Amino acid sequence: MRARVMPVMVAALLLLSACAPGPAASRAPSGTAASTPAEASAPSVTPTPTPVDPIAGLSLAQRVGQLFMVGTPRDSADAGTLAAVADRHVGGVFLHSSPRASAAQTAAVVARFTGLVSQGTTGDVPLWIATDQEGGDVQVLYGPGFDPIPSALMQGVMAPATLQKDAATWASQLRSAGVDLNLAPVADIVTSPAVARQNKPIGLLNRQYGYDEKTVAAGAGAFAAGMREEGVMPTFKHFPGLGRTNTNTDFAPAVDTVITASSPDVEVYRSLLAQGPALVMLSTAVYEKIDPAAPAAFSSKIVTGLLRGQLGFDGVVITDDLSAAAAVSRFTPADRAIDAIEAGCDIVLVSSGPALLPEMYDAVLAKAQSDPAFAAQVDAAARRVVVAKQSGVG
User: Fold this and answer.
1) Domain that holds residue 244
2) What digits encode the pLDDT tens for the residues 208-222?
3) Residue 235 to residues 51, 224, 265, 277: CA-CA distances in angstroms?
4) pTM for this one?
C-alpha cells in the first residue's frame, strides 16, 4: 500500500513545483506593493481630461480685441476697420447704413474682413459679422437679395409660426451675405398706442411687437427662433427697456423714471432667454428706480446684479453704440469702454466707425496689464464671447 502511494505523491509534488513562480517573481520589487487578485482584476480607469480653456491660446491683446465690435459701411470695407481687425485683433464687425448694396456686394465686403482671420490676427477665433436687420425703418441691408421686412409692430400681428418662417427666410438672406449676428429683435414694451406716439426711440418708429409682455414675448421670440434656424444669432434689446422714455439715446441723454427691477420690461427677458442662445444689448439710458448713478451699460447693478444675477443670464452682453450716441458723450471714449467692461458687459459696440477704437482699445489693454482684477474681467468676457462663437445657435 505504501509502495503504491509514494510514486503518486512524488508526481504531485513535482507538478506543484513546476507551477510555482521562480524566485524572481515571488516578491514585488523593492519599494512597490504586490498586486492582490482583486487589484489585478479591477478595470483600468481613464483619467478625466482637464478642460481646455477656450482663450488659453490667445494673448492678452487678442483677448481685449474680442471685446470690441467696430462699424463699416455695408458697401465698402473701411480702411480703419480693416486695421482694427488686423492690428488690434477686433473680434466683431458691424455693417451700418450706406447706399443700397446687393447681397453679393455685401458678401464681398465681409470677405475682406473674414480673410484676416486666417492671418492669425484673432488667434483663429472667427469674427462675428453683425448688422441691424429689424424691419420697417430699421433695416440696414436692402437691395437685390434682401426682402423688405415689415416693422416689428406689423410682425407682431402675424401668427408666431408664420413670423418664425418668414424670419428664417430673412436670416438665410443674411447668411448669404456673410452675416451671422443680428442686433435684433427689439424686446422693449410700449404700453399703448398713445404712449408710442411720444416714445421716440421705439414707438414712434413702430419697433415694438405690441403693448404688453405676452405679445412682445411671442413676437420677439418667434423672430429670434427664425434667425436661429438659419444660423444667425439674435440679440434682444434694449435691456432693461426703452419703451417708457421719450428720449432717443442716439440724440440726447435719456432718463427712465418708471422701470423697476421687477417690471414687465425686465421680466420679458426671462422667457425670451429661456428659448435659445441670444445676446442681450444694454441700453445707455439711466434708470432712476434701479441705478440712478450711471447709464445701464455702465451699471454693475443692472448688468451683473439684475441681468446676470436676478435673471441668471450667463451669455454675451453687448452695449448699445458707445461711439456716436449722445447719451454717453459726456464720458471719454476710454472711460466708456472701461466702465462697460467693469459693469459686466462683454462687447463694446463702436458702430459708427473706427475713429474712437484706438483710444478705447488701448485704454482697456493698459488697464488689464496693470490691474489683475480688471484683467480677470477681461478674461471672463473674452471667454464668454469665444464660447458663444464656438457654440453657435444650435
Assistant:
1) 60-391
2) 999 999 999 999 999
3) 29, 8, 16, 9
4) 0.87
